[in-house]
Write a structure and sequence with these properties.
Length: about 325
């Protein structure tokens, strides 16, 4: 029986409940997918808790990436076929065994990319793509800092930056996570639990600082991230896993004529040409072995509450996959 993990109100994981549904009918321009794997991301926590406003005035099915098989086509869909394997990243609706999706957001999967890898990498991999190619396109020979280096995006970024000839410094919590990040392209990983990352970065760069900081942590790191930037450096703030930094002021950027950007994946991915090209770049790197995808843990979709608890407690590493 088809089912979804629904939320009746913003709040804790106890609000998740399993609800049986009929497989939805696709509307014009949509496809219906039987999902085989679903990705877990911190944006799901933001929606669950109400940090991000709910896009509907009713029960919410959150989740933003997955993979599966097309089982029905809506009117006007001609570039996809029933039985085709696809993956996607799209806000909302992923925590279900079956879902509809705008056909323009469905990316055909090459045979060499398995469903679990696709579900683990669509949001995180495409996030990494826009971060290092668009938000701050790091150049060979530059040094940058990437927070949460042992997370799903962080492990991809370390490898991708290294492949571009960029020296990537990372931060992670605990020796095990630092070791994991070091195996994925980082030149040096700082244990933020035991070390002052500002002091360490300035020592590692001989006082010069870094060209850019990629920060998805927020409250715990953002102001300190500004301190390690070179003159005209760029802070790429793309999340706030520790909460919003209420103390930040635009005047903080005047310290060294700094730049700040707050990009969002879905502003990039709604352009299908970008979506297909960035996905092809990512799949090619995975197929060649230059980009290794770490699925650190998996949960049954019905156990999504436990997965959220582990993610919020920073007890996960790499990507987490939910299995319907």
């Amino acid at each position: 029986m088809a089912y979804a993990m629904m939320l009746a109100a913003p709040g804790g994981v106890e609000n998740f409940r399993r609800v049986e549904i009929a497989p939805p009918e696709p509307g014009p321009g949509e496809v219906m997918i039987r999902q085989t794997a679903i990705g877990l991301n911190f944006i799901d926590v933001y929606f669950r808790t109400g940090t991000y406003p709910w896009p509907v005035a009713r029960d919410l099915v959150t989740g933003s990436e997955g993979a599966g098989v097309i089982e029905a086509l809506g009117e006007g869909v001609e570039h996809l076929t029933i039985g085709q394997r696809v993956a996607y990243t799209f806000p909302g609706g992923a925590y279900a065994s079956h879902r509809t999706l705008p056909a323009e957001q469905a990316v055909p999967l090459p045979d060499v990319i398995t469903d679990d890898i696709a579900a683990a990498v669509m949001l995180k991999g495409l996030t990494t793509h826009y971060l290092i190619h668009h938000s701050y396109p790091a150049s060979p020979g530059e040094t940058v800092l990437f927070h949460a280096a042992a997370g799903g995006v962080g492990l991809l970024a370390g490898q991708w930056l290294s492949a571009r000839g960029v020296k990537a410094l990372g931060t992670a919590g605990g020796s095990a996570k630092c070791a994991l990040a070091a195996e994925h392209g980082y030149a040096h990983v700082i244990d933020y639990r035991a070390q002052d990352f500002v002091r360490e970065v300035m020592e590692l760069t001989e006082g010069r600082g870094v060209a850019a900081v990629y920060d998805s942590v927020g409250k715990d790191t953002l102001l300190q991230s500004l301190e390690v930037l070179q003159t005209f450096g760029t802070l790429v703030a793309f999340g706030q896993s520790s909460g919003m930094c209420e103390e930040f002021r635009i005047s903080h950027l005047a310290r060294a004529s700094l730049r700040l950007t707050r990009p969002t994946l879905f502003h990039h991915s709604r352009n299908r040409d970008w979506l297909l090209k960035a996905s092809a770049d990512m799949f090619s790197l995975i197929a060649s072995g230059r980009l290794k995808i770490e699925i650190g843990q998996s949960f049954a979709l019905a156990e999504v509450g436990q997965a959220h608890v582990a993610l919020e407690a920073r007890e996960t590493s790499g990507s987490t996959v939910l299995l319907p």
